[in-house]
Amino acid sequence: MEFFPAMPLAEWSDTKRTLHRFLQIVGKIRLASSPRRNHWWHVPFHLTGTGLTTRPMGRVDGNPIFTIDFDLVGHRLVASSVDGRTASFPVQGHSVSSFYREVLGTLEGIGVHARIEIPRPYDLPDSGSTFVEDTEHTVYDTAAVTRYWQVLSQVNLVMEEFAARFSGKTSPVHHFWHTLDIAVTRFSDTPVSQPREAGPLIREAYSREAISFGFWFGDDTVPEPAFYSYTVPEPDGLTGRPLPDGAEWATGGSGHLALLRYERVRQEADRAGAVLAFYEAAYRAGAELRGWPVDALACADGVTDPFRRKGGPWT
């Protein structure tokens, strides 16, 4: 299939809203059932050959070890436990309310007593209503959801290639269900003293200097898919640093984002190369201004072994 196919937000916005809430339901189960990791690394989804997975979880919440997978080709939710029990149901045809009930019932059927501490959407317009009350969001276009997973898979591998160029502390490439973006973050060893009023999410996510790189499918602020990067804390002079043609510095939250719109990338002959060049420029802009040892942290071809010949065999 085409690398980075067209994915205009307007063509699947209703489906995206439904899917986003489905993912938040399962994501909140993952949040409650996974051992805690620094910077919330236990929270996001990871990609599979057909969709998304929570990876194995359980034990910390008293449940057996279990996994929840979204099959976004067959459009089924699949729950599996470590003792071999499995159950699934079709995702299409559900409201958020019926999906929520079906997920919990399916897990009970394999011996998992899942709990969601706050059973309502996070940071969405209907966050004041519970999942079980939501009979409004019902649209689920299977072709659009499969395309979403295919684009995610393509972006995932470009980000893996970018991640391999850094030998310092870095997150996995992972898919956050609260904002529906895929991201990878590089960290320095420098602590950041976030104020108490910043809240637990921010205090944990940005307890070290960080430069994050990601992609999202669009929202009310940027109503189209885009690649992005930001530096925390944002250094003075960041927006004065150069970015590749077609990229821009944009206001985002309390600071600025480096932004490269998906449609702009689709105009390039080397689409992956354009994204990698954008990420590299955004990284150097933040890292050099924050005083990171950029050259010392570089990791050409994902290798730190000084004796391995470039392109040579592994053994």
TrEMBL record:
InterPro entries, per database record: DUF5996
Report the domain of life of the source organism: Bacteria
Task: Specify the protein name.
Answer: DUF5996 family protein
Q: Which organism is it from?
A: Nocardiopsis sediminis
